[in-house]
Amino acid sequence: MDNFFDLVPLVVLIPLAGLLINLFAGRQLGERGVSIVAVGASGMAFVIAVLLWIAQVNTGYKAAVIDMPILADWIVIPSANVTIPWAFRVDSLSVTMMLAVTGVGTLIHLYAVGYMHGDERFPRFFVYMNLFLVFMLILVTGNNFLMMFVGWEGVGLCSYLLIGFWFDKPGGVGWRNSDAARKALIVNRVGDFGLVLGVLITFWTFGTLDYYREGEAPIVPHAAAEEGAPLFAPALPAEEEAHAISGPLGVFNQAELWLEKGGHNVDFGMVSLSFETTLTLITLLFLLGATGKSAQIPLFVWLPDAMAGPTPVSALIHAATMVTAGVYMMVRANVFYHAAEFSSFVVAAIGATTALIAGFIALGQWDIKRVLAYSTISQLGFMVAAVGVGAYAAAIFHLVTHACFKALLFLGSGSVIHGMEHGHHHATHGHAGHADDEFDPQDLRFMGGLKERMPVTYWTYLFGTLAIAGIIPFAGFWSKDEILLDSLKAGVDKGLLSGYVGFVLLLTAAAFTAFYMWRQVSLIFLGKPRHAAAAHAEESSRVMTVPLIILAALSLLIGFINVPSGFPILGWLLGEHQFTSFLEHSVPYAHAGTFSFLLATFAVLLALGAIYLARSVYNDRALAVLREDPLALNTRTQRAFTLANAKLYWDEFYFTYVVYPYRNAAYWLAEQVDWRFLHDYVHERLLRDPFNAATRALTWRVDKQIIDRSFDGLGHAARRAASRLRRIQTGYVHIYAMSVLFGALLVMALILLPLIRDWLGL
Amino acid sequence: MGSSEVAVELYVLLSAVLFIMGAMGVLLRRNAILVFMSVELMLNAANLALVAFARQWASGAGHLMVFFVMTVAAAEVAVGLALIVAIFRTKKSIDIDNLHMFKG
Amino acid sequence: MEDISLVTVVLMLPLVGLVLMMLFSRTEQAYKWGALVTSLVTFGASLLLVRNFNTGVSGLQMVQRVDWITADSFTIRYYVGVDGISIWLVLLTTFIMPLSILASFNPIKDRVRLYYVFMLLMEWAMLGVFVAQDLFLFYIFWEVTLVPMYFLIGIWGAEERIYAAIKFFLYTMAGSLLMLLAILWLGNEAGTFSVPDILAKLDSGELTFSTATGRWLFLAFGIAFAIKVPMWPLHSWLPDAHVQAPTAGSVILAGVLLKMGTYGFVRFNLPLFPEASETFAPYVAVLAVIGIIYGAWVSYGQKDVKKLVAYSSISHLGFVMLGIFALNPAGIQGGILQMVNHGISTGGLFLLVGVLYERRHTKLMSAFGGIWRAMPLYSGIALVIVLSSMGLPGLNGFVGEFTILLGSAGSSVLSWWFTFFAAIGIILAAVYMLYMFNTVFMGALDKEENKRLPDLNWQELWSLVPILVMVFVIGLQAGYFFEFMDGSVKDLVDYVNGYALSAAGH
């Protein structure tokens, strides 16, 4: 069974092969061929994930580190001791994520075949979907933080490509889609900034980025000392482990050893910090990354806009998988978060607050997918809060259950939208008049009464709603309950204020969840159709409804993998906290939760109460008319509703205080500072012009006026002298003769001068 | 009285007188031909002096110089008279007071 | 007469090809193909260089050393060789040239023969800069690169080409003059212009200069290189040069010429003036980080796509400078790799811009939109190159950026704030690159003129495909490339650190 582990590269390579085939031969293969390749690749990846899981179970949950075939190490700088390899990790956490990603992913691929039928860029869509799988799987199977980062940014890229898939829809819609795509990537990059800084510090602190090396097992001294709960201890004691492996240990074991020793100082470059401070820094920076990818406060604003993409994209990327990457990362780094108490507090605070605020905003939205988007943000808040209070297993459990029922809800909404579009087409017989310009197949106000028209969609959607609201026995109950319990426990046991506050916030958010989900169900399915489109809607094709049914079944059943200990009957029947036990092998600080009958009952009653409240607000009477939301009409809730509807003005705030100033500053810098000042003024006015002026001064004043003039002057002087001398030439021969005579006499006199002198006696 | 030698001084004196007469003629005459005649006179005066001294010192070089001078004088007269004829043809006058075309 | 080293062969091949071409060719076609063949042969020879390179040796390899001008007090030599620092830059040059030549086939329509003459001269001069080990020889090649570039911009450029060409020439030359003074002083003092000899004399103590002198010399060399990089605030010549230059001119300018500046810092400033390097490192890093952020910010404010890419070069090379002045192996190796990466990605970007310019004769982004629908193959390639420039992990740009940040984070001369602000460049790079990509490629295809644009022809395609290949190869297997650099860079870093330590009296 061991060599099943070697299959892990295939989980990445098969979707890669699939996307390459569809990229180059998509046109020729046609819709059918492309679908088979894409869904097949995803399915095969799922099969391999299952095999890996089996291998894990059969080998006593040993972890394995497998190298990437063909490729050698990625970044190697020997003189700086940098070695970052391409290596995969197979352990319970990565297998869990693989199963979730490929399982839900394959169902969504299948659904998308029906949803995207007829789209002219059908092959391209599945290329991107498979590319997404490739990156997401690299993210969860990488054995070091940098490989995770490859997947991390890679899924961001796929998000960009898929959100902006319909980038050229007419009427400005294309531009909106493209802008939404850009927003997603850029906001994610802000988070990535934090993540990169965290990775840099991690490297210099530990000398490596690997989680664990081959053969290393997680050390759990702290956990063992604290909980006393049965945990999986490694076979070898820590020191022997250290000797068996060459080079530095993985980051987590190094951390454990230093924490145990205490007083370790981190020195690199010009930085010197205590180890605890370093861990706090790293975890906070990682948190920043997680808020970007997992859409928490303050970087969640991209997710609602991301709904511009096709619904399968929203389901897969923005509900089930990509957004969970932040949670995965923090759970993977549970050793760090467990030790950094302050950071965990911040994490819990952000998670709980996000859960509440997003839940609140979801109450006021009219777009079916927006409600689900904010719901996703809210549920992610639950997961993040779970991480913050140390309930790592609960976080991953909720991640898995959420993947199932949120994917279900999104696919269901896609089915609804499809039905509405078909209905619209039928109703207007293909001739949409101007009165129908404001028709939006995604707007809840135009729906209603679809229970009769689209039964399968209705029932599966109902399952999803009950799951997310946390009604027993659906999956959401188990996972949400565990989080609530753990956060309460964190307050009670450790005296953490964050636990109590978080508990209250999460409880409120859970209530909101039930309320807005039932609001959705009421507005979509109950009552009478409010628009011709709804009246003519039809159930979707089987290729779309079959995944819905499968996911609905999962939403009902998957909770049972982690029945808490102490739960009557079922605990004995299905085994207690199976999932947590499985996870514990790779997440040292995962602990199983016990069951609190009181809390569970309270939570279920709260959810049911919220549903009842929603039912009474959105009763048949209100549903029949529905120009305004009943909450908007009620004076007590009016202001709250408006705020929720306006998304708490968060986007507007960012636009006014971040985007707009940055852009204007860019124009100002480009135009005024760089071009007019630096380029023109400094270089041309201050440098070139004086130079030219000096040149001119030299040319004119010095060269021409002074130097030339002086030489010209010489010439003039010569001329003037000549003109005066010319006068000797009188032209008269006898004058010349006379001068000759005089000259001769003069010469003779000079020659005879001595004689003359003698003769005169001088 | 054996040799009827005339004293050299008398020759030189004659030469000087002739020379001065010729010089005066050059300076004071207006007719170009007469100026030329005066120039010839000056040249011949010089010749006379040369011959006298050559006789006195029994030098062949002196006689030789006289021949040179005579030849040159002849050539010069030829050229000069030709020039005068040419000038006369243009200006219809050989009054040197009217000939100042080379005025600078 | 010693054997001719492979380095000399690679260096002189363009010149030989040029001479043969001028003797035997008459037609424009012959010149085009002759130039292409010559550059491909040179590339092949440089691959041999890589194969023969011994990664275990950290000093100069395949050296050729011939006395050229000897006088009583100094010697100037023809002294060439490669080591870990220059090998990939030589490869970059020989790689970029065939691509530029191929991409020029269609766009250049008049005075064609002269154009390809200049291209080959350019290649020769650029190779000379990277392999020269004698300061005088280096200076000669450095200045010679200016002349063909001046003509390339001035003759085949856009509307204001003369202004841009003159500005480019004068600006660079003005900086070089200071360097010349420094070279002359140094050569005189040392009695030789050959850098390895000077280094040996510095090491043995035969030649010393005071700290102040070292700093002045550093600045003298530094200003010339800083103008070339270009470092903020000496960058004003770059936007003009790029916007006015023909496509291949921009590719060469961004791809190779700018690297001469950064290379100069690594090859000369660091080893010759280690004390000054350590002292000035924070100041250079400040300018580098300003360049990163300023370049990215101003890039976002541009309407002309070539100008946008020009300012992005300033941003990218800010990273390189930061990496170099982190003065540690990770930083410097990251910097050198990023030089190569930038050459490839930005060269690719300019080729892409050229493709659009050929079709629509405008570089304003507002003239486009929805190009992805009209030219799918082109857009796919463009996406990859844009992502590479943006530093998507798995592609080449990221490896360089990350390694540089790694170096600057662990640097003993730069505080952590440099890394912090430089990392902001990651966000800003996405902002301007996606702005460009979205505006040009996405959105509705609503302009009539854009609807029937032809996709890539074979010359354009084959000038872009090698770039794509290298983007992935370097991105996925950077270790291979680092292996070549490791020995030489380690020696350099040890030397700089050791010198500074001894100077500090440890």
Description:
The complex is a heterotrimer of chains A (762), B (104) and C (506). Helix content of chain A is 72%, strand content 3%. By secondary structure, chain A is mainly alpha-helical. Chain A folds into four domains: 1-66 and 83-143; 144-427 and 439-645, no CATH class; 650-726; 735-760. Chain A has a two-stranded antiparallel sheet with strand order 1-4. A two-stranded antiparallel ribbon of chain A has the order 2-3. In chain A, strands 5-6 form a two-stranded antiparallel sheet. In chain A, α15 (368-388) packs antiparallel against α20 (497-525), α16 (392-427) packs antiparallel against α18 (455-469) and α16 runs antiparallel to α19. In chain A, 54% of the residues are buried. In chain B, α1 runs antiparallel to α2 (32-57) and α2 (32-57) packs antiparallel against α3 (60-91). Chain B is 76% helix and 0% strand. In chain C, 75% of the residues lie in helices and 4% in strands. Chain C is built from 21 helices and two strands. In chain C, β1 (61-70) and β2 form a beta hairpin. Chain C is globular. Chain C starts with 5 loop residues before the first helix and ends with a helix. Classes of the chains: A mainly alpha (762), B mainly alpha (104), C mainly alpha (506). Chains in contact: A-B, A-C. The interface between A and C is large, with 64 and 65 residues.
What are the salient characteristics of this protein?
heterotrimer; A: 762 residues; mainly alpha; 4 domains; two-stranded antiparallel sheet; two-stranded antiparallel ribbon; 30 helices; 6 strands; 3% strand; B: 104 residues; Helix Hairpins; 3 helices; 76% helix; elongated
In a nutshell, what does this entry contain?
With 104 residues, chain B is mainly alpha-helical. Chain B is built from three helices and no strands.
